[in-house]
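Today's session is about reading a structure prediction critically. Students often jump straight to the picture, but the first step is always the sequence itself: look for stretches that repeat, for charged clusters, for runs of hydrophobic residues. Only then move on to the predicted structure, which in these notes is written as discrete structure tokens rather than atom positions. Here is the chain we will use throughout the hour.
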Amino acid sequence: MTHRHQANERDAAGQSESWIGSESWSGDERSWREQDAPQRWFDVLELLSEHGFEGMARAMQVLINEAMKVERCAALGAGRHERTPLRRGQANGFKPKTVQTRMGALELRVPQTRGVEFYPSALERGQRSERALKLAIAEMYVQGVTTRKVTAVMQELCGLEVTSSQVSRAMQSLDAELAAWRARPLGEMPYLLLDARYEKVRVNGVVVSCSLLVAIGITPDGRRTVLAVSVSLSEAEVHWRDFIADLQSRGMHGVQLVVSDDHAGLRAALRARLPGVKWQRCQFHLAKNMLDYLPPNLSQPEVSAELRSVFDAPSLEEAERLLARMVEKYADIAPKLADWLEHNVPEGLTVMAFPLNQRKKLRTNNMLERLNRELKRRTRVATLFPNAASLLRLATAVLMETDEEWQTEKRYLPKPTTSTAS
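Below is the predicted structure for this chain, in token form.
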């Protein structure tokens, strides 16, 4: 045991001389390191000798702590307690910091200074790695990976145990970028599509269904873009009105047609914020709503085919003629259905006033429905959001990703024909 200790001392002395004698250090700097370096080398070697690989974390902790002190001396221009005209500042103690590494948690003592700016370069590199790791965690979350799976991946790849609170903090690193995207300026938007879906969110300790409001626009050159997303307690008029007002404050203008499902709050908000703009009620939802008024003695495929012929008519006049025939046909045998057809279907014919070759993609909210399904695929992993901010963060990230894909695609709408065929 004595022989091995002596051998360790000889090895340590040799390595210490090698470290201290590095050509990258001047004579003065070398004197700072000579004060404690040999003893610290012995400490490191003893840890490795006695504990093997299990002592790696503690050995690394000693080395990094010493390296930071040496670096502080270089930044100050003087060693510990050294009086020299080259000194640029004063040492100011240490600040504890726990750093998670593949070898485990390192309890570091970060040197502080007064009169000169200083931060150890080793920790700066660690911080960059930590930011990269947080972004990776955030990306996994956005892609629909559960917190449990994120933890397992980090444990397997990095040897780190990641808690749910750490995952949540990683999400917050994206907030500035996502907020900037939600606030970006807009421009002319002839066509506006609006929709909402509901998610479970904990609000003031109570689980409630919050509405996720989404807006999609189609630009004058026929390209689609995600305009906005917001989380509200409901689809009440006040929430839709504020949502549309925010779009306008960001520069949205030139809206000619709004496409959405029927909702009293939304329609009231449109009247208040976009008066005079035409509204197209989604034909897909109209067809679904009709089934609620269909009596059992009528054939669903037959009535649905008749309604589809109204929607597929080449002109508004032809659509109105076919609708009138349906109303007359069912007035006696299904009066509730006939009344519903007469008062609701015309709201789905507004698109007839727009170019014939663009109507098919403007007459429904199907594009938003597909986007909502993608949102659901991501949000169903969470099942319950701890707060509205977490829901908004995930939804924004998904929609931002979708919008970037859309920017590289071809036109969504063809160039309008000269005739509206109305």
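Discussion point for the tutorial: The first strand starts at residue 90 and ends at 101.
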